[in-house]
Amino acid sequence: MSAAASLLLASLLSLAAAGPAFHTFIVQESHSSTPQGFTKVGPADDATTLNLRIALASSNFAGLEKALYDVSTPSSSSYGNHLSKDEVNAFLAPTAEATAAVQAWLDSHGLSATKSSSAGDWLSLSVPVSKANQMFAAQYETFEHNASGKTVARTLSYSLPAEVADHIAAVHPATTFNNPAGSLKPVLSIPKAPSSPTANLSSDATPSSCATSITPACLQSLYGIPTTPATESSNSIVVSGFIEQFANKADLTSFLKKFRTDISSSTTFALQTLDGGSNPQSASQAGVEANLDIQYTVGVATGVPVVFVSVGEDFNDGDLEGFLDIVNFLSAEDQVPQVMTTSYGENETDMSKALAFKLCEAYAAFGARGTSVLFASGDGGVEGGQAQTCSVYQAAFPSGCPFLTSVGSVHGISPETGSTFSSGGFSNYWGVADYQSSAVSAFLTAQGSTNKGLFNASGRGYPDISAQGENVQIFSGGRSGGVDGTSCSSPIFASVIGLINDRLVAAGNSPLGFLNPWLYANPSMLNDVTTGSNPGCGAKGFTARAGWDPVTGLGTPNFAKMLTAAGL
Ligand SMILES: *[C@@H]1O[C@H](CO)[C@@H](O)[C@H](O)[C@H]1NC(C)=O
Ligand SMILES: *[C@@H]1O[C@H](CO)[C@@H](O)[C@H](O)[C@H]1NC(C)=O
Ligand SMILES: *[C@@H]1O[C@H](CO)[C@@H](O)[C@H](O)[C@H]1NC(C)=O
Ligand SMILES: *[C@@H]1O[C@H](CO)[C@@H](O)[C@H](O)[C@H]1NC(C)=O
């Protein structure tokens, strides 16, 4: 037999053996009815373009998780030996078999996808609704988000062919019904009438005024945060920006002129953009959230380089893809930032579990590289990211992900007290993390039967830590005023970590990286907050008490003690 004939025979055989490919579908995720807060409008137009994200299963996430704990646990001999991009990507990358199977499936639809993460575990492609319906045996429909009036294309169920089902970890957009208008906006109490930039501020920040109005001087005094400038240019804090919230430089200058007279008022931040992001500077486009986040990093982490990453809305319909894109964008860099702070979030229950797990893997990867990932816990108390109607306590996303640090809010100075809006509780998606299991079980024991049946006692508990978050003074659009929210607390805590990292790097040490094992191993370096509660869902919520609690976590920063715990 000639070589050509035998090849032909072999390929005929393999066709016969494979049978009709990609026709046996396995349901991946589904909803029995339209999720709360959305109304079905009708079938999505066949021609509507869907910007799909397809997550491939990582070849060895368990290996990455072990490596993450090895480099983040102070008692480990590998503590601080953060991984390189290539080392992390080797764990995250899909297997060759997975890549080939998914490629064959896309080929069968005449499609090709773009890799959208440096490890190759995320693919992006644009397809019409009609094609997505075939690919996923789905029925994409148009749903209106009641609160914002925005419409999104989603499906109540999606399936994958048997050949790729084990290789694909998540698909988006599909069954995730997240808030398309973004979330975790701070509550702003700016005077209604325009005022001059320096008018109507509380008098100079003395410690007694800090009981009701927070400025950088208050935080320096309360937490012992130094005013001496950082020295290390390689050490940075990333502030993430979404949903066209822009950080205004003139507002930052006004803020520094008023609150940081000891440093140059021209101190500023760097800008990075992705997904068509920008940072226009007209006063009318100044975003309260972005200004808050920038003013309480540049204005508190004195001298630490701050980078505002403005994520645009190309190829994404809200903050969810933004969460994914920013972490994949930064992870693709050879040098990752040492801290990333984010003041946006979702309801955990609105997220597809598969998508939530895959996004959480990206935070583990970032932590393994040496980045401290901080998120505001949410502003809905036990009601989740934001206040809502509920009969059982709601978890906030991504705070339930165990590979990031969730920051709650406190107010007052003697003593500091948990804020009623401080989101906290227990995840329904992730179990309690090892690093926190004794702290969480001590809380559960102390709480006794209170809140029984309202929360998941086996879940990961959050927040991990807290910081001031009420009547925090900012400038926005040329006006000044106070804002409330865990949105304030995350950048404040991020600044403390940025300043500690500066000293670690100056001493030739590694930055802190993933914080939680270090935090729970050193609870006494934090100011334990033992008053306050976060009521909601028609119940009393959780109560702050000695030790960790799901209102204030382990407590607020004590800079000197944290430095000591960091070995400085
Ligand atoms: C959303 O709006 C629809 C139609 O107006 C209504 O039937 C539904 O109850 C609303 N859902 C919520 C959660 O408000
Ligand atoms: C701001 O100052 C003006 C003039 O002193 C005063 O009338 C007004 O009540 C003040 N507004 C606030 C919010 O304190
Ligand atoms: C959480 O869910 C509630 C009820 O569906 C909704 O009103 C709220 O906007 C959601 N919050 C976020 C942050 O998406
Ligand atoms: C409770 O949390 C665990 C994770 O620890 C999860 O597996 C379980 O499904 C959750 N229970 C409910 C009712 O959501």
The helical percent reads 25-40%
Radius of gyration: 24 Å
Structural class: alpha/beta
Number of helices: 15
Keywords: Calcium, Hydrolase, Metal-binding, Protease, Serine protease, Signal, Zymogen
Signal peptide: 1-18
Cofactor: Ca(2+)
Protein name: Family S53 protease
List the helices and strands and how they pair.
Layout (H helix, E strand, L loop, with lengths): L2 H16 L6 E6 L7 E6 L5 E8 L4 H12 L12 H8 L3 H13 L5 E2 L6 E7 H7 L5 E5 L5 E4 L2 E5 H4 L2 E5 L14 E3 L26 H8 L13 E5 L7 H11 L10 E5 L13 H11 L7 E6 L7 H13 L7 E4 L3 E2 L5 H17 L2 E5 L19 E2 L7 E7 L5 E2 L6 E7 L5 H11 L11 E4 L2 E4 L3 E5 L2 E6 L1 H21 L9 H6 L4 E2 L28 E2 L1 H7 L3
Parallel strand pairs: 11-13, 11-14, 12-13, 14-16, 16-18, 18-22
Antiparallel strand pairs: 1-8, 2-6, 3-5, 3-9, 4-5, 6-7, 10-24, 15-17, 18-19, 20-21, 23-24, 25-26
One 2-acetamido-2-deoxy-beta-D-glucopyranose binds next to loops.
